[in-house]
Task: inverse folding
């Protein structure tokens, strides 16, 4: 019998299944028992019977054969709740399965349930009226981040080895950073988002929360590639996992700018030092040339941008708005009210102008260097109940300040990977490695090199929580 779920990465679990060290059914039983015992509040729905049935039929020769995974509750599985983490849709059931989830299942992975998210993915926090507060497994009184907070908590908390995520402004990287995980935001379109793809605002990508770089690369192998129901998805590229570490000679001499603040964020001084040290160590390992004096100027898009993003939510709510206002979290309700009353064509024009400037600003940076390294979050995880920016010591913490570090890669579409670099106050912190469009393999190679030279704990102390 297996007393605890697997506490290493998903790839090693597949190896254990193939060698006979572990059994998919016993592993699934341990997984479901651990989720049932957990106090993290990171799952909002479980389908244990179906998961056990799938484990009994698992093909361990598949890439993720027999591996349990969590599905972010903004992704869909036919027959499961389709709540968008909102009371408004608490009773709705999905009539189709998301393309990425379908591909993961085709690769042998077994969905066990829905992981909690922020309402409609609108904030990078882990608290909603529907589900309450999701805890960070390193300290449950601290935020797991968002919007993929439940996925990050479940993976770092030792409950499942991998889980789905989505990133429209940092929603994979922010919780990965707070929970000590790998969070890969690929080039926009790398993994298709269909079916029924919401196109606007062209910033959202999907992916996974992972314990290792090879898990993230294998997820690419299984889930990436063009799908006609996402017209902006990219052609398939094979060999992501097999290619890890095979391009190290090509890295030598590439230029990197180490800019912990990404030009505008206010981050904790100790973290600034940690990011610089980790970036310099990676540059030495890879033979990168550090370029100083690079002026990163990627403008924030401001309130108008936030309101523009609410058009998709209004389409989702339809005639339910404004009658559903009291069922929404205060921040989402306030944003909807302001947007419906004040958003207009003039604001839309300003958003487009600012977006052009953002594209030009990032292009200017990559005219000077091949890579940028910055912090992922401005500090370690803040108290879980915080939903608006709050001053803590020298740093303002909260969802708005986080976005200054992560949103630029969404606006422009660059690949960016969060990797852990150490701890502050006993909590994980990380850095981002950002590259020009379509250089996902370069980013993954550097993340892999960081992991090889300075490995991190793949689950929180004392997991499962």
Result:
């Amino acid at each position: 019998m297996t007393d605890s779920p697997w506490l290493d990465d998903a790839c090693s679990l597949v190896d254990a299944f193939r060698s006979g060290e572990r059994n998919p059914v016993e592993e699934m039983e341990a997984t479901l028992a651990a989720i049932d015992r957990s106090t993290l509040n990171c799952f909002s729905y479980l389908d244990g019977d179906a998961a056990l049935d799938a484990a009994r039929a698992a093909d361990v020769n598949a890439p993720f054969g027999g591996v349990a995974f969590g599905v972010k509750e903004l992704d869909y599985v036919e027959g499961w709740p389709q709540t968008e983490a909102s009371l408004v849709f608490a009773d709705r059931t999905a009539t189709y399965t998301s393309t990425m989830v379908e591909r993961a299942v085709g690769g042998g992975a077994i969905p066990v349930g829905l992981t909690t998210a922020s309402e409609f993915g609108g904030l990078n926090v882990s608290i909603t009226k529907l589900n309450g507060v999701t805890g960070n497994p390193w300290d449950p009184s601290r935020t797991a981040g968002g919007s993929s907070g439940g996925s990050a908590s479940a993976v770092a908390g030792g409950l499942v080895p991998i889980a789905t995520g989505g990133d429209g402004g940092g929603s994979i990287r922010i919780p990965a950073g707070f929970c000590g995980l790998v969070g890969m935001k690929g080039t926009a379109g790398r993994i298709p988002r269909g079916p029924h793809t919401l196109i606007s605002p062209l910033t959202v990508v999907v992916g996974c929360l992972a314990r290792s770089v090879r898990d993230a690369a294998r997820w690419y192998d299984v889930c990436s590639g063009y799908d006609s129901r996402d017209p902006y998805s990219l052609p398939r590229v094979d060999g992501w996992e097999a290619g890890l570490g095979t391009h190290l000679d090509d890295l030598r001499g590439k230029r990197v700018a180490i800019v912990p603040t990404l030009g505008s964020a206010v981050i904790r001084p100790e973290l600034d030092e940690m990011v610089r040290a980790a970036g310099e160590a990676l540059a030495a390992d890879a033979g990168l040339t550090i370029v100083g004096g690079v002026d990163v100027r990627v403008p924030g898009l401001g309130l108008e941008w936030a309101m523009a993003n609410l058009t998709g939510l209004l389409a989702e709510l339809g005639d339910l708005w404004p009658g559903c206002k009291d069922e929404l979290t205060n921040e989402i309700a306030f944003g909807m009210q302001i947007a419906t009353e004040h958003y207009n064509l003039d604001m839309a024009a300003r958003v487009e102008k600012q977006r052009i400037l953002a594209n030009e600003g990032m292009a200017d940076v990559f005219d000077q260097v091949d890579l940028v390294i910055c912090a992922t979050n401005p500090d370690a995880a803040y108290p879980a109940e915080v939903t608006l920016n709050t001053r803590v010591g020298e740093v303002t913490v909260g969802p708005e300040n986080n976005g200054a570090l992560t949103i630029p890669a969404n606006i422009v579409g660059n690949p960016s990977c969060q990797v852990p670099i150490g701890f502050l106050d006993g909590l994980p912190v990380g850095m981002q490695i950002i590259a020009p469009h379509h250089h996902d393999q370069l980013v993954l190679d550097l993340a892999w090199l960081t992991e090889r030279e300075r490995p991190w704990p793949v689950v929180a102390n004392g997991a499962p929580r």
